[in-house]
Design a protein that fits this description.
The structure holds two protein chains of two kinds. By secondary structure, chain A is of the alpha/beta class. Chain A is built from 13 helices and four strands. Chain A has two domains: about 260 residues, no CATH class; about 80 residues, D-Maltodextrin-Binding Protein, domain 2 (3-Layer(aba) Sandwich), CATH 3.40.190. In chain A, helix 5 runs antiparallel to helix 7, helix 5 runs antiparallel to helix 11 and helix 9 packs antiparallel against helix 10. The longest helix of chain A has about 35 residues. By secondary structure, chain B is α/β, with parallel strands linked by helices. Chain B folds into two domains: about 210 residues, P-loop containing nucleotide triphosphate hydrolases (Rossmann fold, 3-Layer(aba) Sandwich), CATH 3.40.50.300; about 70 residues, Alpha-Beta Plaits, CATH 3.30.70. In chain B, about 35% of the residues lie in helices and about 30% in strands. In chain B, helix 3 crosses helix 4, helix 3 packs parallel to helix 5 and helix 9 crosses helix 10. The longest helix of chain B has 18 residues. The two termini of chain B are about 25 Å apart. Classes of the chains: A alpha/beta, B alpha/beta. At the A-B interface, helix 1, helix 6 and helix 13 of A face helix 2 and helix 3 of B.
Chain lengths: ~375, ~325
Amino acid sequence: MTSPIWLIAEREFRTYVATFSFWAALAVGPLAAGGGLLLAEGMHNAAQPVAIVVKSHDPILMHAARAALKEVASLENRQLIITQNAGARLTLTTRTENQIDLIFEPAFPLSVTARTLVARTLERDVARRASGVPLPVIRQIPSASAPAQRSNPAAVARILLMAMLWLTLTGSLGMLLQTVARERATRSLESLLAAAAPWQIMAGKLAGVGGVSFLVLGAWIGSSEALAMLAPKPNLAPALLAELTKPELLARAVMVYSLAYGLFGSATVALGALARDSASAQNLSRPMFILLMAAFFVALTIGTSGAAASPSWLLYVPVFTPFLLLTYPAGALSWSLQLKLFTLMLAATVIVARFAASRFALRESGAQFFGANVARS
Amino acid sequence: MPPAASSDLLRITGLAKRFRGGGGVSNVTFSVPAGAVTGFIGINGAGKSTTLRCAMGLLRPDAGEIQLFGGPFSCGSRRRIGFLPEERGLFAHDRARDAIAFHGRLKGMARRAALAAADKLLERVGLGARKCDRIASLSKGNAQRVQVLAAMVHDPELLLLDEPLSGLDLIAQSELLSLLAEFRARGRGILFSTHSMSAAEAICDRVVMLSGGRTIFEGAVPDASALAPHGAIIVTTDAQCLGAAARSLGGHVIPVTGATGEVARWRVVLPPEITHPALIRALSEHAVPLLAFEPIKPGLEGAFWHLAQPQAMESRAA
């Protein structure tokens, strides 16, 4: 005998999967990943070698200028090919013993900063040549207290997971709201209530819609990773992949995703059960979606500003907890703190779920159905 | 009040449930025995659906006692009941056989058994060829039949049906009634609410009549029919002359709802030996201005109106 929970979950799942919109949503991930790859490829093509011309009466100066240009161009991820006549021109003119003019054509493929850097590099070389004394080599060592770089793959992976959580939640909660509000409005819920307890129906709906969302999420992540591996000239992708497949991060993400879906899903069921129809359900749920958006932006700000090093008090506010748990690096949150936060989310989920189940029965029965049924059975 | 019989599948005693916006039931008492069809009769708002929802545990009563299979409501007893709610709730995307089988599985049936039972029931009501059609593509009547089958697919011991005949044509009604008769023949109990007195007379062994949120009759159909008075419904502007005419024949008059200004509807109750032509003659002799004349129908309908009248007057006064 199959549990009513799984029967209801299976029906919800099949109902959504058997629609065109589901397959469209499923295709969005691979299409977006493919589009991103094409874009990256386009950017890669944009960084193709560019021909330039360097002119000077002083061969030594010209040689030094060529070396400086190549060095600076590499900083801007550009590849310059120096030719005799074709391409944008850089002319070096010695005015006096102490003055050399660098004349860049407007179309010369370097930024203003890079052009200044070329000038300083040339100054260094000229000075070295004039003094005849070898200049010291100056190395830059990253400081331990320096803020994390924005392109840090670990930080990007965490923000990516957090963004996907937000995306998954908003999508699945919308579906959940619709299914609850529709059945409440038509009172077709009575058929189910005659066969299963409210908490079983609620759990079944959560599991069914959650299954759809997690399937879409899995397809998106899987296809993105597959396409990233196929990328012709990957840069950030392998590092991101390495981060996203770290067992610790994955385990935390699965835990956070499940708890967040349980918490916000229960809240959505409660809101849908309070509403008279779809329109009022939309209105009632709006504050929750605004809160979700606020949590997303707060987590994004913390994750990108480098403030993630020290935990914020917002971690203890259940609405923010899942997003911030994903944003903070593992080292910033001790295991005991993470355990406390998971427990906090679980407690919040149980409270909200109990309320949702009590409101899931008929409006006239008041908020006593859940307890009454359990007690009487 | 009849004593509780050991074969009673459902017994409701002194049920009361009031809603904030008004309505509900105040004192409902009846029982549903095994192997019998019990009709649940009452006008709109009498409290039939409220009573059925309370029996199914969908509403918590304010007062009274509900016993299912000799005990209080439980998850176990829920599985032994087939329930057709007032508002139908099938998934439009589901196929007919899947929708029926789904409800069977919710009640504990195995998948194969549920599908086989669904196919058999669909064949039985002539929908075998449409078993793979989606609910959305079925007519209202056919969808209604599928919903009824979903309530009985797991062969419950007790069927609670809220207006199962609404939306069905005469042939479909006849098919459903014969299906219920087969169900009864297997010793199952059925309680179904209806507005159709003819359907109730055709299949019911017993009836429970509800008016103003109270039970006004519970018993065998012949006993109920015998309570129907002999007489007529008359619309007139002169109540005094009408009363005099009725008294001249040994009868009396009872006001009926729906008075408009001086125009009022009256029920004239006559001794059994007085015929309707004799009443018309008496009305003529007493110069009663006659706006409408309708003989009271014998059987359940007449009995219901006769029994419901005092309750309706009381409710209106309240």
